[in-house]
Amino acid sequence: MVEGEGVSLGFFEKYLAVWVALCMVVGLLLSQFFPALSIAINNLQVSGISIPIGICLFLMMYPALLNLQLAELKNLMQNPKPIIVTILSNWIWAPLVTAFLAYFFLAGHDQLIVSLILLGSSPCTAMVLVWGTLAEGNQEQNFINTSLNTITIMFLYAPIVSLLTGIQNIQIDRITLLISVFVFIGFPLVLGYVSKKYITRTKGETWFLEVYKPRVGKIAILALLTTLIVLFSLNGNVLIQNPGEMVLVSIPLLLGFAIVVGINLFITKFAGLQYREAIISVIIGSSSHFEIAIATAITLFGLGSQAALGTTMGLFWEVPIMLILVYLGKKLNHRGFWKKD
Q1: How far, in Å, are 12, 137, 290 from residue 8 at the CA level?
Q2: Within 10 Å of residue 83's Cβ, how many Cβ atoms?
Q3: CA–CA distance from 201 to each of 121, 132, 205, 209 (Å)?
C-alpha cells in the first residue's frame, strides 16, 4: 500500500479473499496427494517452532509494524474523542463480545475458543490504512490509531488473552504467549522502527513510502499465502472429515463482526462524530490483527492445530467484511447517519 491521497488496493490486496480461498483448496489437495511435503516442512523445527513458518510469520508482521509513527502521537489530544472510542472498542467490547460468543457457540472446542479470543483481542495495525483510505476517512486519525495500537498491543495483548481464556479455565502456556508477543511483535517492531529511520535517512521518505513499503508488503502477502497453504495441507484430513468445524467457527466470527460493527456505528453516531472520523473509528475498532493471531495460535498449539485454523478463518471472513463496511459507511454518510462536516 502507498500512504496518502489516492491510495487504492493493489492487485493482491484487492483479491485477497480469492487468494485465501485458493490457498485453502491447494492446501487441501496437497494433504491428499502430497502429505509428506507439508510434514517435512513442519519437521524443520527449533523448540517446537517450524523454522520455515517462523520466517513466513516474521515476513507477515514486519511490514505491518513499519506503520508505526511516533511523531503522530503528539497530535493525540487535538481531537481525542474518536481515538478514545476506538481504544474502548479494541480493548473492551470487541474482546468481550468475541469471547462471549466463542464460549456460547464453541463449548467443548477449547482451541477454537482460543482462536476467537486471539482474534478479538488483537486490534489491526496494517490493512486498516487501506480500508480507511478507500472509505475516504481521516488518515491522520488512522495513523495515530494504528501507531497507538502498535504500542498498546505489546502490553495488553497477552494479559487480555490470559484473562479471557482463564475465565473458563482454558489452559494455555502463558510463557509461550509472552514469547510470541516478543518474537512476533516486539522484535519486528524494533527492526521496523530502526530500518525505517535508516532508510528514510539514506534514501529519503518518498523512496521508503513509494518503493520499499510496497515491495515488502507484497512479500508479506506471499508469506501469508504460503503459511495458509501449509496450514490447510496439515489439517486437510481433519477438515475433509469434519467440515462442520469450519462452519462452526464461522458462526461466532460473523456474528461477532456484526455485533461489534453495530456497536461502533451507533457509538460514533451518539458521540457526535463526523463521517471522516467516525468511519475510521468503526473500521479500526471492528477489525483484527490476524497476522499476530495466526502467529500466536501456531506457537501455542502447533501448525496443524484447530486454533491455527480458527484464526485463519478469521482472516478469510475479515477481508470481504471490511470491504462491505467501506461501502456501508459511504451509504450511511450519504443518508446523513453521522453529523455533517
Answers
A1: 11, 13, 21
A2: 22
A3: 35, 28, 8, 13
Total domains present in the chain: 1
Residue 245 lies in a domain: yes
Q: What is the CA radius of gyration of the chain?
A: 19
Q: Has residue 8 been placed in a domain?
A: no
Report residue 184 as a C-alpha cell.
Answer: 512476533
Q: Which CATH number does the domain housing residue 191 bear?
A: 1.20.1530.20
Residue 36 structural domain = 28-334
Report mean pLDDT in 10-residue bins for the chain, 341 residues.
46 71 85 78 66 74 70 67 90 95 93 94 78 82 81 89 90 82 79 88 89 83 78 71 83 95 94 91 90 83 82 83 91 89 64
Residue 274 β-bridge partners: 339
- Which amino acid appears at position 125 of this protein? T
- Size (the chain), residues: 341
For residues 154 and 290, is the Cβ–Cβ distance under 8 A? no
Secondary structure of 30-99 as H, E, C letters: HHHHCHHHHHHHHCCEECCEEHHHHHHHHHHHHHHHCCCCHHHHHHHHHCHHHHHHHHHHHHHHHHHHHH
Q: Is residue 10 part of a domain?
A: no
**Coil/strand/helix, residue 271:** coil
Q: Does residue 23 form part of some domain?
A: no
